[in-house]
Amino acid sequence: MATETRPTGIDVVGDMVAWGAHFCFFYETKQDLVDTLISYCKSGLESEEYCLWIVAEPLTVDEAKDALKAAVPDVDQHLADSRLEIASARDWFLPDGSFDGKRLTRSWYEKLASLSARGYAGMRVTGDTTWLPKKNWSHFCDYEDGLNEVIGNQRLACFARTHLPRAAHLKSWMWCVHTSCPRKETRELGRCRIGRAQGGQGRADASQ
After folding, report:
1. What is the CATH number of domain 6-197?
2. HEC profile for the chain?
3. Prediction pTM value
4. Which residue has the higher pLDDT, 150 or 91?
């Protein structure tokens, strides 16, 4: 895939040097989360990309829509034109109450094919794992392994986010290729954890 710089809208991340980015954001407060995701989605809409915001706690779908409207006044039009989708994480990942990684991977390919046919520059997604029941963790990790292949070969960027106090309990760091924290005092913590999870080979480029 040809190199194509895309703005992320996030200062500490900067521009994506190519499609296929999969990076993680560690947040401490709800406002940190809201501010960062608004910037990320706003930048995508301005770049003629399709944006999918998968909403999970501590936000609700209505809160996400209201927050985005303050920065993007024509949010309702974007939703009506199917340029923007704001969905509940449980509806997206657990449509029948259970997690099916193979079904979900097929749905990514189908959506990407549909968006390509409609002429979108690409697709940017944001989601997290606060919705994930403990019993589904092993299945989710298998799904994440396969997701990297989807991302790396498509005009797709995924922005994961994790509440920092939960970070030590998660095992899905392996797919994070870039990490950022909005607060300087927590960036080094995120850097160390990514590196440890990847056997010391992780890349964590958060600015100091």
Report:
1. 3.40.50.300
2. CCCCCEECCCCCCCEECCCCCEEEEEECCHHHHHHHHHHHHHHHHHCCCEEEEEECCCCCHHHHHHHHHHHCCCHHHHHHCCCEEEEEHHHHHCCCCCCCHHHHHHHHHHHHHHHHHCCCCCEEEEEECCCCCHHHHHHHHHHHHHHHHHHHCCCEEEEEEEEHHHHHHCCCHHHCCCEECCCHHHHHHHHHHHHHHCCCCCCCCCCC
3. 0.79
4. 91
